[in-house]
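hey so u asked for the seq, here:
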Amino acid sequence: METILLVGHGSRDSAGNEELLRFADMVRAKAPGFAIETCFLEFAKPSIDQGIAKCVAQGASRVVLVPIILFAAGHAKIHIPDAIDHAKQKYPHVQFAYGRPIGVHQKVINILKTRLAETGYSAEQQSGERDPNTAVLLLGRGSSDVDANSDFYKMARLFWEQVPVKWTESCFIGVTEPSFEEGLERCLQLGAKTVYVLPYFLFTGILIKRIEQMVADFAALHPDRNIVLADYFGFHPELADLLLDRVAEAFEGRAAMNCDLCKYRIEAAAHLEHHHHHHDDEHGHDYHHHDHSHDHGHDHEHDHGHNHAHHEHAHDHHHGHGHDGHEHAHSHAHGHKGEPQ
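ran it, structure tokens below
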């Protein structure tokens, strides 16, 4: 028996947790052939350990964990794999697979475009002309992980390529910069008469309610400008479709993750300084090998794979990138003891 365990972040706001559970019901309705359970990383129950235990108790011989998380940062790179490591030791008779976070995908662009259209914005792009009076401000949660933040910026650029506004700016509600206030001010300085704020959030919660108040306060300070807050991702059908894509990848063993810019990987590289580095197109040493191939596909997804062993960490990293007519495949293997905190 194979069971899918959807792993949500969890919120201090019970309404956010309820929305995640309702979203899980949407996924179940689209995939009636799957046994699907749900758990949370923090602030709500069942925990990830409890979720795994429930799957095993119900007779699962294979548990496929799929994070309902926007980008690969600490939770996706460290906490969930660590929970899987413990589960492998506790349930040696059960197989475990791990799917990717939502990440960079056209379906997310489609969700953002839908949320923008719902505000009433309907300008059409003609002859490459862009609306000089309008800015879209993508508002993210913010992360200490550079890979997650850079993926957010990439999504902002991909969004700009598909909408006719002159300006698409990016900012964060916390952890890193630019701040939400700085993002709003920048849009006005660029000359935008209307600013559409698109929250890059899955579900409601404390931060969404804070954002609503901040938008109202900023609009009151600038009565000559139009500040419009769009809805978060919520129950958009393409979000459920995308999560099922991630489920299929994990089931088929195709899920992988990008560790090139992972801060843990960068620090781990210090342990490898005694190795001799070659700068040819192909490296002969066992911890760094590049295999480049070219394909005329157009794919904005990042493939990431982590294989974590408990206490002494042996990491096998694979990621593939397809960008505008070329595709790169890279693999990295390295081992180190302990994880930096």
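Residues 268-341 have pLDDT under 50 and may be disordered. The longest strand covers residues 312-323.
lmk if thats what u needed
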